[in-house]
Amino acid sequence: MELTLFNILDILGTIAFAISGALAAMDRRLDLFGIFIISFVTAIGGGTLRDTLIGNTPVTWMENTIYIYLIGVVTILAIVFRNKINYLKKSLFLFDTIGLGIFTITGVEIGIRNDLDPIICIALGAMTGTFGGAIRDILCNEIPVIFRKEIYATACLFGGLVFVIMHDLGVNQDIIYLTTSLIVISIRLLVVKYHISLPYFYIS
Amino acid sequence: MELTLFNILDILGTIAFAISGALAAMDRRLDLFGIFIISFVTAIGGGTLRDTLIGNTPVTWMENTIYIYLIGVVTILAIVFRNKINYLKKSLFLFDTIGLGIFTITGVEIGIRNDLDPIICIALGAMTGTFGGAIRDILCNEIPVIFRKEIYATACLFGGLVFVIMHDLGVNQDIIYLTTSLIVISIRLLVVKYHISLPYFYIS
Amino acid sequence: MELTLFNILDILGTIAFAISGALAAMDRRLDLFGIFIISFVTAIGGGTLRDTLIGNTPVTWMENTIYIYLIGVVTILAIVFRNKINYLKKSLFLFDTIGLGIFTITGVEIGIRNDLDPIICIALGAMTGTFGGAIRDILCNEIPVIFRKEIYATACLFGGLVFVIMHDLGVNQDIIYLTTSLIVISIRLLVVKYHISLPYFYIS
What we know:
Membrane topology (chains A, B, C): Multi-pass membrane protein
Radius of gyration of chain A: 17 Å
Number of domains of chain A: 1
Protein name (chains A, B, C): Glycine transporter domain-containing protein
Number of strands of chain A: 0
Oligomer: homotrimer
Order of helices and strands of chain A: HHHHHHHHH
Strand content of chain A: under 5%
Shape of chain A: globular
Helix content of chain A: over 70%
Main location (chains A, B, C): membrane
Number of helices of chain A: 9
Subcellular location (chains A, B, C): Cell membrane
Structural class of chain A: mainly alpha
Transmembrane segments (chains A, B, C): 6-25, 32-49, 61-81, 93-112, 118-139, 151-169, 175-196
Largest sheet of chain A: none
């Protein structure tokens, strides 16, 4: 595997989600296998859904074994340093947010490489960014983060929109990647800090 | 996209399921994004499962962006007219039933076009008809309609059976479509009206 | 379909999981359709996930209708003889374990046939072995067996490891199949009998 910026980002996102999965599993007091499985599913969930729906099979982590080894090592490190990682307050939230920002980018990029319509690329970005965390939460019996009162997936959709517009304008790819992942991460942090929420519509 | 009867039905089914999803999400008091996501997943869930399992990728809604725009517009209308739609008692049930009837047809038809065995076509019809509603119910934390005491999916299976028999007899396609969707819808309405249920088998 | 040892094992695994599904559904007092659907999903779930992720579509049970008929007949027999089957204490556990052992083998084998990396073959074996039972448990509202305190999926991973090592050493295929399925089944039985469990890691 070449070390392009795309691949480096994909690896960083995988590491971030693997850590968030391992933390969630230890928090739920699952056994060793449970920790590995949640870590793995969180890290590869979004990309697997994306690859399956566009027909990019065997899915990426089956073709590139680096992912499976990487997740294994990261999970072991997360177990060993579990108390240190957790010392940083809200570290699960932090790693989840980093993974979200990065995987949104890789999802949109894969859509563009497959010549899909811009709106589908944005949807792919949101799915790739959120699906792993949603499975993690479902398996850990949490209400998925995606449905809590934070503008979670909306950050992905907005980041994806900026991505396709910049791509259309011919902006340099590295700049697009860095700008849009920072946008997604910033929106999420600001939203949580200032308790911003989307409107509700009740049936009266 | 040509406006064949197949495509018109597929669009009508998509609209019906999108409305049922939006109603369910507003009923559960999800925020704006939650409404869109449930609406979207309900409308494309069945077709996405069908396309993925037979290998028709990228899945239909990724190739044909009309679906994603259509669902967006329908969801906005459902939000604006939420109190009017809901004034019709049991409208969620009604739209769900229409979607069920129509998507059963499109599922069976896609199976036939892919030269699959008649019994597999019937199974594809049932999966396409029921899967979107099942995800909607799971995400909204309801027991999926498919497992409640109404002969829900059984209506799809029966409609699918009539479809493949009529297709084998060489009946005109338009007549098959209309007959079988009406059969599925009628069975479901009658079953609910007269509280018909399937037998149970207990382990003594 | 030829009657190779692979196909015979695949059929035996399908029968075992279909029975375990039917028993679980009757235990949960689902209606006739619910019994068939749980039986079907349990029996084809693991193989369907495996086929979808590697791109072997339409998935196996759609190409080979023998599976759908077989599951139908097995489910009817399970309903008719429900009290007899259940008379054998822990029969759900028994059939689940047999299915687990056999499907681990078929998963690894399919990975090898698709020239995937040994570690991916082991992962495919574990997914094929455990996914059907996990869906069964989720649909029946149980905590999935895979997350209970038995070394469940770990048995699959160990069996898969032995499989790829023996395959690498050029051992005769029939011997590999029988050895590894017996290993998986034995580990699970021993683990449950002696209450062996994997270590836990708490965040202090």
